[in-house]
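Dear support,

I submitted the protein below through the web form. The confirmation email said the job was done, but the results page showed an empty box. After a refresh the structure appeared. I'm attaching both so you can tell me whether what I see now is the final result or a partial one.
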Amino acid sequence: PLGVDLVAARDGAAALAQLAARRPALVTLDLVLPNLDGFAVLERIRQRRDLDDMPIVVISAIADAATVKRAYGLGVVDFVAKPFNVDLLDAKLKVFLKMQKLADEVRVRQSFLEDVVDHLSSGLIVVDERGVIVKANAAACNVLSRAAESLVGRVIAEALPGAEPLFLVSGDAAQRRVTIRTAHGDRNLGF
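What the results page shows now:
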């Protein structure tokens, strides 16, 4: 009824072995498992960068406040106490699967846009609201004779003194130009 392949694991170690072989869209996890309990499984899952955003729904007969709080602290998206209503669980799982599908689509689009930015022939530097450089494409690095690593994470005023006016947001359509000093001489920049 969920429209996905279901894979079961007999204990915590088997669950981790399954996760090493493939990334599921969603995990349902009991806390009471032989060998390796559910909390140990949760901790190991969250230590893996490739799984740290995977939705996990705990389904457990142990549902005291401290247990539920600990599970949420380890990043579960929901905690369902046994016994549970099957129809309600089905509805919740469908919602979480849809949310995961949308998150996957956003990641694909973001990757595509990052690829487009990386291959632009025009230099592009992206800054956050604090003026910290978060992205510099290859063309920008080429024009500035700087490696991206020397720019990203630094404040514009510190990384590219004199270029701050280029990053001011304004409602006018006026073109802005500045000259900054690089290792290979002055560079005129503008937009």
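Response: this is the final, complete result; the empty box was a page-load delay. The chain has a mean pLDDT of 88.
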